[in-house]
Amino acid sequence: MALLYYALHLPVIPAWLLLILAPGAPLTRAYVHSGVVPVVLGCVYGVLLFCGAVLGFSADGAGMGSLAGVTALFSHPVGVLTGWAHFIVFDLFVGAWIARDAAKLGMGHAASVPILILTLVFGPLGLLAHILRRVAGGHGWRIA
Predict the structure, then answer these.
(1) Distance from CA of residue 111 to its chain's centroid?
(2) Is the model's pLDDT at 141 over the cut of 90?
(3) How far are the Cα atoms of 50, 62, 77, 139 from residue 66, in angstroms, in the given order?
(4) Nearest of 116, 109, 111, 74 to residue 93 by alpha carbon
(5) What is the pLDDT of residues 91-123, one digit of tens each?
(6) Residues 6+ apart with CB under 8 A from 113
(7) Is residue 64 a contact partner of residue 73, using CB atoms and an 8 Å limit?
(8) How many whole angstroms separate alpha carbon 85 and alpha carbon 77?
(9) H-type alpha helices, 22-61
């Protein structure tokens, strides 16, 4: 299981490095701003979810209907890996959106780097920081 944990990062780490260090590069557009990483990790997530929910590789009482069920879900290695795959793919997806949105609004990449790092480490806080930066810069709340 530890090997799978590290393997989950193989498509994600290069994507974050490209997003932060080479935001306008063709490789960044082709890799980070495409569906490549979400598709790969989405498949892994689906297999892990199937193993936990259908094949029974989960703790007794695991589920999403109560706090106790979620706690049990994350008390099993398959549940933790499923959750981790979910977190890292969504954090990267949000980071890529932040980079595109900031570029579209002319916010400058250097000012986006700390927010991207915040998103990498603490996903929702990075998104919050970007939205607050949008509002402070007169770009409003609408993020569509």
Answers:
(1) 20
(2) no
(3) 20, 9, 19, 38
(4) 116
(5) 999 999 999 999 999 999 999 999 999 999 999
(6) 20
(7) yes
(8) 12
(9) 26-31, 36-53
Which amino acid does the sequence have at 43? C
Task: Give the DSSP per-residue string, 113-141.
Answer: HHHHHHHHHHHHHHHHHHHHHHHHTT--S
Token pair of 123 as six digits: 């996903």
pLDDT digits (tens, 9 = 90+) for 6-46: 999 999 999 999 999 999 999 999 999 999 999 999 999 99
- Output the six-digit token pair for 26: 């063709």
Inter-axis angle of helices 12-21 and 77-104, to 10 degrees? 20
User: 10 Å Cβ neighbour count for 27?
Assistant: 10
> For tokens 């790969």, what's the residue?
40
